[in-house]
Every structure is written in C-alpha cells, then in structure tokens.
Structure to design on (226 residues):
C-alpha cells in the first residue's frame, strides 16, 4: 500500500501557522510591562496592564526616576490590602503618621471592564469622592489587594445591591481566589501580581499601630524587569 506524504509547501505552511500561533500566544501572555517589588518580606513580580496606559506609563516614569526607592508600606489591613507610594515614608520616624504624600499631581481614572480587584490586583489610591468627584488617582500611591474569598451567597447579595457589576467569570474569581469586589469601578486597577502572592500575605499579616502602619517597617523598592 502506497504511503501518503504531505507535500513540502503544505508542511511549510503548517509550520508557519504553528509558529505564528505560538508567537501570538506568547505575546498575549507576556503583554504589559513587568516590574519587581523588592521588599523586606520577599519579592513580588507585577505586570502592568496595557489597557490602562496612563497609570502604566506614570508608574514606569516614577520607577525610572528612582521615586520608589526604600519606601514603606505605610498602611496595611489584613484581608483587605497593603498600601505604599508615599514619598514621606522614606526614612520616616517610628510612629509617624503617613499617607498624605505624592508627586504633586493626579492621574485621570481608567476604569476598564474585566480589570477587577481580585487578590493580587494593583490599584491606585485616591482622595474620596466628596473632594475628588472625577475619581482621579493619586500620582504615586497604590495598593495591592489581599481581600478574602467570598461565598456565592455573599456575591449574590453584592450583585443585588449593585455594589459590584459582577459577571459569571468575575464572581467565580471572587469565590475562589478572592479579592475586594466592592471597590470595582471606583478605583483604577492597573496591574496584578504574577509571582509572590505569598509575600503579599506575609506583609498583610504584620501587626500594625492605630494608623494601620506596621510596627516593624516593611521597606520596598521597585525596579523594571522589562
């Protein structure tokens, strides 16, 4: 029985299509800038979203200027988030209240469907709606979400109250990975931890004072990976 073989042009076409598909998948998985948080509790890798270019480019600019060097996570709340980005935290005295600093400007809000406050999300801090109706972000302060896992019943209640615009996919994330769904659509999410969630948990577990500042300083610096 005569064996059938694919002709050379067909084989070449199949290989080209495979390589193109592989390249496209690689591009998709590696999209966005990658930055590194080096902290006194360990390191975290964070991917900045291309869907929020104003926040992405602003953070890259500040990193390149050395803005995020030896700062503190000055506000830490277990099962909620860890916050940093206040330049006044560099070398701050023990017990000093922090959280009012920034680079002197704000960044316009960039709310995007699908970019949610899941565990590990990087989001921008800001002033409250009463003094900031445009919900513009502080130019440098950010937080990393720890949050908690919600039950399906809790998610249904949140959806009924209109607290969060939940889809089937986002509801599944909040009932498995966890997060803070009530913040969706109110604060700009512009990145996510891709490696080092255990470090986030370690920092969130630190004992804190009455102002939510860790009793023992948690120092961090941020660098650009790519």
């Amino acid at each position: 029985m005569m064996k059938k073989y694919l002709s050379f042009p067909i084989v070449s076409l199949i290989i080209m299509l495979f390589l193109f598909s592989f390249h496209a998948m690689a591009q998709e998985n590696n999209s966005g800038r990658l930055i590194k948080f080096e902290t006194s509790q360990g390191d975290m890798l964070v991917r900045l979203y291309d869907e929020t270019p104003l926040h992405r480019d602003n953070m890259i600019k500040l990193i390149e200027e050395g803005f995020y060097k030896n700062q503190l996570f000055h506000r830490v709340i277990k099962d909620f988030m860890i916050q940093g980005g206040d330049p006044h935290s560099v070398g701050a005295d023990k017990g000093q209240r922090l959280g009012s600093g920034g680079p002197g400007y704000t960044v316009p809000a960039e709310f995007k469907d699908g970019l949610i406050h899941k565990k590990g999300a990087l989001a921008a801090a800001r002033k409250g709606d009463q003094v900031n109706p445009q919900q513009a972000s502080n130019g440098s302060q950010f937080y990393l979400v720890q949050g908690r896992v919600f039950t399906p019943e809790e998610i249904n209640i949140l959806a009924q109250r209109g607290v969060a615009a939940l889809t089937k996919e986002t509801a599944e994330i909040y009932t498995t990975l966890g997060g803070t769904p009530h913040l969706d659509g109110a604060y700009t999410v512009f990145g996510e931890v891709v490696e080092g969630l255990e470090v986030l948990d370690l920092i969130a577990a630190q004992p804190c004072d009455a102002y939510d500042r860790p009793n023992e300083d948690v120092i961090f610096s941020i660098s650009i990976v790519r």
Summary: The CA atoms of residues 78 and 204 lie 5 Å apart. Residues 33-224 form a domain with the Cyclophilin fold (CATH 2.40.100.10). The chain has one domain: 33-224.
